[in-house]
Specification:
single chain; 181 residues; 3-stranded antiparallel β-sheet; 9% strand; disordered N terminus
Length: 181
Amino acid sequence: MDRPRQLDCYPGFSDVMNSCIYSGLQWLMRSGIQEVSGGVSGLSDTNTASYSSISTIATSSFVSGLLQNSEINPEVAVECAFGGGRFLLDHAFDSDTGLFLHAVVEGGSPAPLTYLFDSTSGIRALIDLWKVTQEPAYVEQAERSGIAVKETFARMDGSFFAAFDLVKKTPSELTEPWWSH
């Protein structure tokens, strides 16, 4: 009797690690962490089945992770990834600046600060989607956001600001770690 083919998500990883990756991605696709809009909540309380606001980084990582591991459950993974992509295009960026938002809170209003990682993770996800679909909207927004990141976050000395205040339209020096927001 043939043994079922073991999914090897990441060659070189142990069977236990691959099993954990597989289980984690399966949970993501059926947990409810992805909203109907396609956006993904940044935090989940599994005890109460409650979720935080939609996070650009979480949505972007969700999209990229599913596309890179779509062999796990191809139809569902691609459908979830495309939903996240639509959210990134339609709701997750500030049209005035071209930057991706940090979070979209209840009622659709953006968080006042956005972070460098929000835009770079959004760009990565859009490029991953473009590679699969060749849909011009993905690469066009990725290019626009890349230019906005360079123009908005770059400092004269070649380093980058970590945050940008969308209300004041100016780079922001952080007084707390970015992950505390």
